[in-house]
Specification:
The complex is a heterodimer of chains A (about 190) and B (about 100).
Chain A (H helix, E strand, L loop, with lengths): L2 H22 L3 H21 L3 H26 L11 H24 L14 H9 L7 H22 L5 H4 L7 H6 L1
Helix pairs in contact in A: 1-2, 2-3
Chain B lengths: L6 H21 L3 H25 L6 H31 L13
Helix pairs in contact in B: 1-2, 2-3
Classes of the chains: A mainly alpha (about 190), B mainly alpha (about 100).
């Protein structure tokens, strides 16, 4: 067993431990920090597979972007000392049973299936190859998904701004009478 | 680089991570922790794509790009979901799913 193998099992152990802690921790802020550790360990696995660009994207987008967003929203919506409400014990037991059954079934299927790798020569996933393939419209090019993702990001950005901004009160403009009295008390 | 590690080890790792995420999604009652469980699930799927690309089809980069696209979709999904959660918190003063039955008829 070389040092690389030991590193893989170290990363795998930290991923499993911290993802379990993310799911069962009662404090929400702590489980967000455990999720950060899971994502950083996943980036380590990508680095060990020689996918450096993907690992860098994982670190910047997930660990730098999504976790910060989640921590901000936790701080906006709950107190730091607040403990999360969990499901009743009966539901927890049945969920654990269902999840364990699914995991055992999937692992049995994986170990039974014979994967056959191709014999073709490998291409290296360095930044040059990745960048050329990302904007190429030939065969093995990914220009269309690139454009679709850019439109999706724009739509998500506009949608998030529209959803999160405060609504102005309709009484000021006066063009629409407020027919439902419940709405005015809630907003 | 870690070619000595068998493919099954990666697949078992991602399977366990996926089902831990599903367990969290089923048992959590807070919307933000449910969102974190979804991030766990998406991350395990990413590991699967990357490992299949590396071990089975190293002559293409399809799994690599699919993981990139999944990361982008996860980012936009998290942004929209958190906007919705903050809006819900503003209206109901709570983000526990047990209290969110106002949309029922």
């Amino acid at each position: 067993m070389t040092l690389n193998d030991i590193m893989f099992y170290l990363f795998a152990g930290s991923i499993l431990t911290f993802s379990l802690l993310t799911v069962i921790s009662r404090r929400i802020l702590r489980s967000a920090v455990y999720l950060l550790f899971v994502l950083v360990s996943t980036a380590g696995i990508y680095f060990m597979l020689n996918y450096n660009f993907l690992a860098a994207v994982q670190l910047t987008v997930y660990a730098g972007g999504i976790i910060v967003l989640i921590i901000f929203s936790i701080l906006l919506t709950s107190h730091v000392s607040e403990k999360a409400v969990v499901a009743p014990v009966r539901q927890q037991i049945f969920s654990a049973l269902a999840v364990a059954a699914g995991a055992v079934l999937t692992i049995l299927t994986i170990t039974k299936f014979a994967f056959t790798p191709t014999a073709s020569p490998a291409i290296e996933a360095n930044v040059t190859n990745v960048g050329r393939a990302l904007v190429s419209y030939n065969r093995d090019g990914f220009a269309l998904p690139f454009e679709v993702i850019s439109i999706l990001l724009l739509a998500a950005m506009v949608g998030a701004i529209v959803l999160a901004k405060k609504e102005k009160h309709l009484e000021i403009s006066g063009d629409q009478p407020n027919t439902n009295p419940d709405n005015s008390t809630k907003s | 680089m870690i070619d000595n590690v068998p493919l099954n080890a990666f697949l078992i790792l991602s399977t366990l991570m996926f089902f831990i995420g599903i367990y969290g999604f089923l048992t959590r009652r807070n919307l933000i922790t449910m969102l974190m469980s979804i991030e766990l699930i998406l991350n395990s799927v990413n590991i699967n794509f990357v490992v299949f690309n590396k071990f089975l089809y190293p002559n293409h980069l399809h799994g690599h790009f699919f993981s990139l696209i999944v990361i982008a979709v996860a980012a936009s999904e998290a942004a929209v979901a958190i906007a919705i959660i903050i809006n819900i918190y503003r209206n109901f003063k709570s983000i526990d799913v047990d209290n969110l039955d106002q949309m029922k008829l």
